[in-house]
Write the structure tokens for this entry.
Amino acid sequence: MDRIPALFARHNIRCTPQREAVYSALEATESHPTALELHGMVAKKAGGISLATVYNTLELLTRKGLTRRYVHTSASTGGREEAARYDADTRSHIHFIDDQTGRLRDIPADLGVDLLSKLPADVIEQIEDRLGVRIDQVRIELHGDQTGSQAC
């Protein structure tokens, strides 16, 4: 388990048992949990961790680039913001967001790569020129709702 302390050291994060437990649990799941859901997962293994510690750790990890935070609205909340969901996979990848429940799912990597590879480079360059910016990364979110047998 020396990998996480080394990762934290590279990002100037003091490694505590609580931070390591939060990151380890987030890294081990593909469910894109909320802080509350992650607290439930971690509390089973590292009893005594507070919800505030989970929130603070997620904020730190996100600020340092080790996690991503996703906030959006959904029909289930009447268009209000859902609780933030977190992902330890910071590589470029595409999510499907269920607009009814707010749940995130990763698009299969091969399909995501295929979609991103088909983005016209000349359009990206035109956007950069017109806005006077440099685009480092493109993120795509696919929105919809679950259908029949594919529901989680």
The chain has one domain: 3-147. Residues 3-147 form a domain with the Arc Repressor Mutant, subunit A fold (CATH 1.10.10.10). The longest strand covers residues 95-98.
